[in-house]
Amino acid sequence: MTLSVQIKGVLLTLAAVCFGVITGGIVKMLSGDLTLLSTLFFRYLFSLPILGLVAWQARGRDMLHITQRRTMAIRVMFGLAGITFWFLSVRNIPLGQATALFQSSVLFITLASPLLLAEKVGIYRTMAVIAGLLGIVLLTDPFSQAVTPAVLFAVFGAMASAGLAITLRKLGKGDQPVTVAFVYNSIGFLVFSLMVLILPGQFVLPSLNQLLMLVALGMFSSLLQLCFTTAYRYSEAVVVASLRYLQVPMAAIFGFLLFSEVPTAIQLCGMVVVVSSCMFIIWREFTISRQRAIDK
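and the corresponding C-alpha cells:
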C-alpha cells in the first residue's frame, strides 16, 4: 500500500471523526427545544438523499439488494438501539463523557467475540478489557453523585454499538457497505415515521433554524458513514480504528467551547483509561493478525 493511499485513508478517517463530533454537537444544541423522536425522524430523513445517490451510482438497480437478510435485520435492531441510546446520552450528559463511554464499544466487542465469533481472547486483551471496564466506572463518576440514567444510556449505546460492529463484520463478507448503509437508514426512517403516527404528541415541528440544523445533522451523519466505510479501503483497520479515538478529546473540547462543559478529574482519568485500553486491544489484534499472515 503506497503512502499516498494511506494518507487518503487517514484524511477520510479524520473527516469522519470531525463529522462525528459535529453531529453530537448538533444533537445537543437541539435537545432543549426539540423532542428525541423529532430529532431521530429528521436525522434519518435527511441522511437518505446522499446515501441513496451514492448507492445508485455504485450499484445501480442492485442498490437495495441484500443477500444476508437475517443478519441485516439484526444490524438494523442494533443500529436503531445504538443511535437512540447515543442521542439520549448526548442530550443529558457532557458531550466528552458521552463520547468516551460510547467509544468503549471495543471492550464489549472483545468480551462478546469468544461467544459470537469464536475468536480467542488472550490474557493481554483480557487485562485490557478489565482496565477498560474500570475506566468506564471512573467515567460514570459514581463518587460525586448517583449514576444517572443518561450515563447508563451511553453504556447501553456502547453495547449496542459492539453488537453492530459484529454484525457489520458478517455483512461485509457478502454485501456492499453502501447498500447496507442505505437500506439501514431507509428502514430507520420508516420505523420512526411509524413512531410519529403512534406517538404524535412526541413529535414537534421544527422552526426554520432548527430545520436547517436537522438537514445538517442528516447530511453529516451520511457523510460520517461513507467516510468511515471508504477509509477502510485505503488504510489498515488498526489505523482507522485508532484514529477514531481522536473523537473523545475533540468532543471534550467541543463541549467546553460550546456548552461550557468541564469534566471532573475522575472523568478525565476514565477517558484516558478507556481510550488507552481500547487502543491496546486494537494494536494487539493487529499484531496477532500480522503474525498469522507471516506464519502462512
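(Above: one complete record from the training split.) The chain is about 80% helix and 0% strand.
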